[in-house]
TrEMBL record:
<keyword id="KW-0456">Lyase</keyword>
<feature type="modified residue" description="2,3-didehydroalanine (Ser)">
    <location>
        <position position="149"/>
    </location>
</feature>
<comment type="pathway">
    <text>Amino-acid degradation; L-histidine degradation into L-glutamate; N-formimidoyl-L-glutamate from L-histidine: step 1/3.</text>
</comment>
<dbReference type="InterPro" id="IPR008948">
    <property type="entry name" value="L-Aspartase-like"/>
</dbReference>
<dbReference type="Pfam" id="PF00221">
    <property type="entry name" value="Lyase_aromatic"/>
</dbReference>
<dbReference type="InterPro" id="IPR022313">
    <property type="entry name" value="Phe/His_NH3-lyase_AS"/>
</dbReference>
<dbReference type="InterPro" id="IPR001106">
    <property type="entry name" value="Aromatic_Lyase"/>
</dbReference>
<dbReference type="InterPro" id="IPR024083">
    <property type="entry name" value="Fumarase/histidase_N"/>
</dbReference>
<protein>
    <recommendedName>
        <fullName>Histidine ammonia-lyase</fullName>
        <ecNumber>4.3.1.3</ecNumber>
    </recommendedName>
</protein>
<keyword id="KW-0369">Histidine metabolism</keyword>
<comment type="similarity">
    <text>Belongs to the PAL/histidase family.</text>
</comment>
<dbReference type="InterPro" id="IPR005921">
    <property type="entry name" value="HutH"/>
</dbReference>
<keyword id="KW-0963">Cytoplasm</keyword>
<feature type="cross-link" description="5-imidazolinone (Ala-Gly)">
    <location>
        <begin position="148"/>
        <end position="150"/>
    </location>
</feature>
Amino acid sequence: MDTTNGGSVDVGVGPLAFDQVVAVARHGARVTLTDEALKAIAVARAYVDELAARPTPAYGISTGFGALATRHIHEDLRAKLQLNIVRSHAAGSGPEVEAEVVRAMMLLRLSTLATGRTGVRPVTAETLAALLNAGITPIVYEYGSLGCSGDLAPLSHVALALIGEGEVRDADGRLRPAAEALAEAGIEPLRLVAKEGLALLNGTDGMLGMLALAIEDLRGLLKAADVAAAMSVEAQLGTDRVFAADLQELRPHPGQGVSAANLRALLADSAIMESHRGPHCNRVQDAYSLRCSPQVHGAARDTLDHAALVASRELASAIDNPVVLPDGRVESNGNFHGAPVAYVLDFLAIPVADVASISERRSDRMLDVARSHGLPAFLADDPGVDSGHMIAQYTQAGIVSELKRLAVPASVDSIPSSAMQEDHVSMGWSGARKLRRAVDGLTRVIAIEILTAARALDLRAPLRPGPATGAVVTALRSRVPAPGPDRYLAPEIAAAVDLVRDGSLVAAAESVTGPLA
């Protein structure tokens, strides 16, 4: 991973912004702990040291964990206690979690440490920052978190690397023993002291990191969905009158107004749209998948805004148990429960599935001669000899079906753990993992719609699309040839997916319209 060109992010006692999370997680930005954060950490640590010296048991400092919290731990065993919690809780299984997710999780745990509410030493936070800056990414596994008491197993695998154990991927992506990678980077492995093992594990950082990344991706995908819808309306000789501002204002949902404004801008000055205006046009109402695009895409935007509000609150939180309060008290709490984040992770999966569903319906209309208003069957060069985009729609349909299953909530489930001490859990990590798969699926569905609509627009020649949608077709044609006889379609779909994912097609439209909202 290149950790030199992603900029720099200061980690202080205040909350991180979404773009900072993305910069570190996805683009390798370096992190720096502020002086204010280091001072806050040191002050809290002094309170923990004072409490550890007292004979009174304090959870996580001089007791066991979870259902074992009733055992008082002698001072001579407390370092071993912190080491053991990391080793024993690093019990994940399954495929590796993506590097950007692990880096997001590391950054968010560092942000909580920087609040001075966890009681770790400054060197502990500095070591975590050093791993991020060296591009060292601990191996974290798909399964292990119940989303309560934080993302325990995933964060334990991160903590394991901090003490020089387990496996990591280095800046070049090579799988290596943690001790070897740390030594090469000049990072001294941590020797944990009282409270520190627990403080490294007890957060919602995994599910929150995935939520932040999903919000970033969905902001762009909803713009791409508007681009796709505009192209489909245009290609199917639909009407843009239904997107008029005064009609949208009759139902003042913010996202709906934004989506309709995007559609108006994208369809402006289209020769295809102009070709069927006037007294002889009988297209007074289009099918719902065309006419109601702003309502569906807009509702998705409003849901995304709610999720972003919840995420911003969580970014401003200090999640640990126990926590160190400003007056020096160390108190147990339940803030590690992932319900607030888990609910919106599940919530987002619903509009993701529905936006994909309406996209697939728009695509299907372009392939059916009974509904496409003069386009060849399946947009084929020689229908019957050629199949055109027939099976591309199958791919969309298969993905949409999967997205509907992924929209089933994880947070309604709960399996008791830790001998019934942890008897209700959020399953937020599971919600985050399925949302990532859903976002990928939506990307592919929208890409296929744009690929199909671009082909349909080309087949409307000599009529030309509007400047904005035409710019999208031109950008796509840099990677995908114009319509012709059947050819190997999978690489063309992959190219369209890449152009949607990296924002190139939205940028092409915005080169004409200005920024879409």
